[in-house]
Write a structure and sequence with these properties.
By secondary structure, this protein is of the alpha/beta class. It contains eight helices and 14 strands. It has helices spanning about 45-50, 90-100, 110-120, 130-145, 160-180, 190-195, 215-220, 265-275; strands at about 5-15, 20-30, 35-40, 60-65, 75-80, 150-155, 180-185, 200-205, 205-215, 220-225, 235-240, 245-250, 260, 280-285. Helix 4 (about 130-145) runs parallel beside helix 5. The longest helix has 18 residues, at about 160-180. The chain is globular and about 65 Å long. The two termini are about 25 Å apart. It binds adenosine-5'-triphosphate. Adenosine-5'-triphosphate binds near residues 18, 21 and 43.
Length: about 300
């Protein structure tokens, strides 16, 4: 399977003495995945997306996007930043016309217009008169109208109402399924991610903590409740409960003792890893970066 994004030892510091916003990140995101980029506030998600979009350079390490340096394939990449910058003076129709002019080879005007129409927006309305959620819809119409191969979305749904979120996520997923678009999308809304995404990148303190297919990652963990010795297994998080101990583990061989075992949900997996900040990282096969020097350097 080909690679959409590959990071090798990626480091980003803001300022000479700043702490690392990204600290030795190495991972591979295969093409065609809809990947959730998750992590606590300040984990480095926006920084990673901005570097991948070619808007910021890393301090050291390598990042390859669609087989080249970030920014090289800008025509095939759509990036939606958290603040979704649009020209306030322009009308929606003018904004979409600008999208057509900036993307002459790829622009799908009918598709962009349909996304706007679904939000009952008047194409003549000026951007400055729109609500935050309505602006998000126009920004997503611009991004999707470009028919990108890779979408980098920084909390795209944060200010949408539940219906609009559901509808636009559906549009995004259908588009990705039909065209094989790769999506890397940051969000704090786990329910939204569980429905839409098939892949996960969990960042904590600038480091990759989990990477891989969501099914593979949940299958690699067990939520166990009971009594017994967990020595020899990787215990991500453990706490006393009414029935002994409840722990999220990665088991290595059979469990000794009396345990009830179940596969964790995505939410249980994420919450445990977010709380247990020093749990060992896990990248599933296919999502580890190549260690050879073939990645494109910064
Ligand atoms: N322009 C900047 N100058 C200095 N430090 C910055 C800058 N942008 C981000 N940082 C720092 O880099 C770290 C990572 O920030 P980033 O915005 O990438 O995190 P995030 O995971 O997107 O957070 P959130 O979930 O709150 O959006 C934080 O410690 C932040 O303070």
């Amino acid at each position: 399977m080909s690679t959409a994004i590959e990071a090798t030892g990626l480091v980003k510091r803001y300022g000479r003495r700043g702490a690392a916003a990204l600290d030795d990140c190495s991972f591979r995101l295969p093409t065609g995945r809809i990947s959730a980029l998750v992590g606590p506030n300040g984990a480095g998600k926006s920084t990673l997306l901005a570097i991948a979009a070619g808007l910021m350079r890393q301090t050291s390490g390598q990042l390859e996007v669609l087989g080249g340096v970030p920014g090289e394939s800008r025509a095939k990449v759509a990036y939606l930043s958290q603040d979704k910058p649009l020209h306030p003076q322009l009308s929606i129709a003018d904004t979409l016309r600008l999208g057509a002019e900036l993307n002459p080879e790829r622009w799908d005007g009918a598709y962009a217009a349909k996304i706007v129409e679904q939000g009952d927006l008047d194409p003549k309305a000026r951007i400055r008169s729109l609500s935050g959620g309505q602006r998000t819809r126009v920004a997503l119409a611009l991004a999707l109208g470009k028919r990108p191969e890779l979408m980098l979305l920084d909390e795209p749904m944060a200010d949408l109402d539940p219906l609009a979120r559901h509808e636009l996520m559906g549009t995004l997923m259908a588009d990705a399924a039909e065209h094989g678009t790769t999506v890397l999308m940051s969000s704090h809304i786990v329910a939204e991610l569980a429905d839409a995404c098939d892949h996960l990148l969990l960042l904590g303190d600038g480091r990759i903590r989990l990477g891989g297919g969501i099914d593979d990652l949940t299958r690699a963990h067990s939520l166990v409740t009971g009594r017994g010795d967990l020595t020899g297994h990787t215990v991500v998080e453990s706490r006393a409960s009414g029935r002994g101990t409840t722990a999220l583990i990665r088991h290595d061989g059979p469990l000794g003792g009396d345990w009830q075992v179940q596969q964790p949900s995505l939410e249980e997996l994420l919450l445990a890893h977010l709380r247990a900040t020093d749990a060992p990282a896990l990248l599933t096969p296919g999502t580890t970066a190549r260690t050879s020097g073939s990645a494109v350097s910064a």
